[in-house]
# Entry
Amino acid sequence: MTQKAWAFLGGKQVPQEDAKVGVMTHALHYGTSVFEGIRGNWNDRIGKIAIFRLAEHYERLLRGCKILRIDLPYSVDDLCQITVDLADKNGFREDVYIRPLAFKGQEAVANLNLNSLDDEFMLVMLPFGSYIDNTRPLKCQTSSWRRPMDSSMPTGVKIAGLYTTSILAKSEALAAGYDEAILLNQDGSVSEGSGENLFMVRDGVISTPSETDNCLLGITRDSVIQLAKNELNMDVVQRHIHRSELYLADEVFLTGTAAHLTSVGELDNRVIGTGTTGAVTKQLQDLYFSTVVGDNDRYVNWCTFVTPSGG
Ligand code: PMP
# Structure
């Protein structure tokens, strides 16, 4: 028998099959929602799920809510507790993906005034293995779609409408036989992957696009910046990156909650470095993977541990 999943909607836990919204819901029509993608990583050694950087995800969610004028009745601590309680209730003893969504939940069509609409919050979680094959370096394509500029749509937070561009880019790359898309900014500089931040290593220096390059301020990105500094003694330079710099890089890798830390072996049919996972990428991968399951003592406070009871 398949396990019954539980969601959180309307201020309480409900069976997921009953967590529904109406066809007139504003967010469905206009993308007026802010979401998060959080991973709970199952650690078999201790029999617990390690939820990675839970509070930081909710801090970002609330930043998005502020921009979209969504007023939730919850603090970061409340949201963390709601998540821990739902992980406990669901009882999954495997890797999970956790999806909170704050949205304009009013059934209102032909109303473009954010200030007049009611807000809603929902949370679901699902068993989730790998999002992208990170056992081998990826083949990437520079997308024909450009990353929206913050002047068109706020880019540092996960506003749902923004993902139309990511989805067009990812679908185009997959249809052309690539694994992932890299999006450029309107000025042709590098922004990020369709659902990942991008880093390059060249002549021993790690660089990544900065906040003003319209990329999402990724939590994995921040974790990697800290791990590189503290554990490898390498500062990550945040700057404008030209497309052609990527072709000449020694290593390129992508970071994201779903995608983890994945090396790029090819971009636009040009081999990056040796085409294999480079030494810096490998060291960061090893650090990252032990950290996200709660096995790195120095960063154990980045994980919120849940022993799922399923009750
Ligand atoms: N960029 C985009 C467009 C994303 O959707 C994601 C995934 N949330 C990322 C970057 C990586 O962010 P994070 O490390 O916080 O998951």
Q: What stands out?
A: DSSP finds seven helices and 17 strands in the chain. The chain has two domains: 6-127, 138-292. The first strand starts at residue 6 and ends at 9. The CA atoms of residues 258 and 274 lie 26 Å apart.
